[in-house]
Design goal:
With 413 residues, the chain is mainly α. It is built from 17 helices and no strands. α14 (276-295) crosses α16. The two termini are 35 Å apart.
């Protein structure tokens, strides 16, 4: 990354430490994706109970994200970042102790605070640090912590669980989160911008949520999040039920590799062609991934679906974060990110219990057909409603026009 070499020493150090903390955090968190549903199943949980417990994670996200966004704007990004990592370091010890479904559900809610805090603080901090002209490139590169963590965490975690049992797995996730906490404590928080009383009034939760620049992205993230929740919670169990010789952890690893590659390519290109084209591509890729899972009966089908899922996640999240950075002022950025991501949280929260219930009647395979329909609806909404009118929306979503809500074009007040 040539742009990185042009930064001063302090900025380069800050970004490197932040990247290391993010890599360790996501490795710890992602390790639970293929393993925790199997753990709940092994202690006697039903499909619906697996969905309920896994969905508790998103409840923690949803409930705490708005207040953590406000805290990031008023007390600094670093504090919120450290809260997230601390929760990630504590939660695994709870899984060692608790064996009942109700207690695991409560623990999962607590664990959800980790992503709510970390992703809000991390995203806002990177957006603050990134020069505007290469914002897409920097955010994409810094977001690589997610796919790398998703590649390493499930693979290593799955190996530890299969070879040594669940206890060693939980200790592993706690240990790497503690190392992430040491890294995060070294991050230098940029100074906060003072905000006037009138600006605070304009930036309350409901006014941000109902503004044109935020509400459509939040709805899109809600629909995509519902599909993501279904896939992440149930894909390992679905693969196991098909008796195809393919480890669920490898699905996430292949997806993460795909996500890594697409982020490297998309970030710089979005600074030139706009964010809309890549968000459209991401939603379409996720739709394809769910359709492929719906029809999957072989190792190759699961591999191709994982590649499509990685392309979807690799563009949707980094480009949506970049678009919301374009549409927000620094002193409200934590809340804007938190509210937009709350749509994702709500989708994930309702996905696990709802699709867990649905899968009892239609099976895992048909469940992915329903999730494909949701992401296709998200694609239609983004194509037609992402900007001021239908024409502008289509042009922006297809990379043929500018974002009318970018601060380069309008006054967000």
């Amino acid at each position: 990354m040539k742009a990185f070499n042009t930064f001063d020493t302090d900025l380069r150090r800050n970004l490197l430490i932040l990247f290391a903390a993010g890599l360790l955090f996501w490795s710890s968190t992602a390790a639970f994706l293929p393993t925790l549903p199997l753990y709940i199943q092994d202690i006697g949980g039903s499909k619906q109970e697996i969905g309920i417990v896994m969905g508790g994670f998103a409840i923690g996200l949803l409930v705490f994200r708005p207040m953590l966004g406000k805290l990031a704007d008023t007390r600094g990004r670093k504090l919120v970042l450290l809260i997230g990592i601390t929760v990630a370091a504590i939660a695994p010890f709870g899984y060692l102790v608790f064996k009942s479904i109700p207690l695991l559900f409560l623990l999962r809610i607590f664990h959800g605070i980790s992503i709510a805090a970390f992703s809000t603080g991390y995203s806002a901090l990177v957006a603050d640090l990134a020069p505007v002209v290469i914002r897409g490139e920097i955010i994409s590169y810094m977001s690589l912590t997610g796919p790398i963590g998703l590649a390493l965490g499930p693979a290593i975690g799955g190996y530890l669980q299969e070879s040594f049992g669940y206890s060693q797995f939980f200790l592993f996730t706690a240990t790497i989160a503690m190392i992430a906490l040491l890294c995060g404590s070294q991050v230098i928080n940029p100074p906060l911008n003072a905000q006037s009383q009138s600006e605070r009034q304009k930036s309350n939760f409901w006014q941000i949520l109902t503004s044109s620049r935020v509400k459509v992205p939040a709805v899109v993230m809600l629909l995509v999040g519902t599909s993501i929740g279904a896939l992440h919670v149930f894909v390992s169990l679905f693969i196991k039920s098909t008796e195809v010789s393919f480890n669920g952890g490898w699905f996430f690893t292949v997806s993460a590799i795909s996500s890594f590659i697409i982020r490297v390519l998309a970030g710089r290109a979005s600074d030139r062609f706009g964010r809309g084209l890549f968000i459209t591509f991401g939603i379409a890729s996720y739709t394809l991934a769910c359709v492929l899972l719906w029809q999957a009966n072989s190792t190759n089908a699961f591999l191709i679906s994982a590649i499509a899922e990685g392309c979807g996640g690799g563009t949707i999240f980094s480009m949506m974060a970049t678009m919301m950075a374009d549409r927000s002022l620094p002193q409200e950025r934590g809340r804007v990110f938190a509210i937009c991501l709350a749509g994702l949280d709500l989708g994930i929260a309702i996905a696990a219990p709802i699709f867990g219930y649905v899968s009892e009647f239609v099976g895992y395979r048909n469940m992915f057909g329903y999730s494909a329909a949701l992401t296709f609806l998200a694609l239609l909404i983004f194509l037609t409603l992402s900007n001021k009118n239908l024409t502008n929306s289509l042009r922006f979503a297809l990379g043929r026009g500018e974002d009318a809500f970018s601060l380069n074009n309008i006054d967000v007040s």
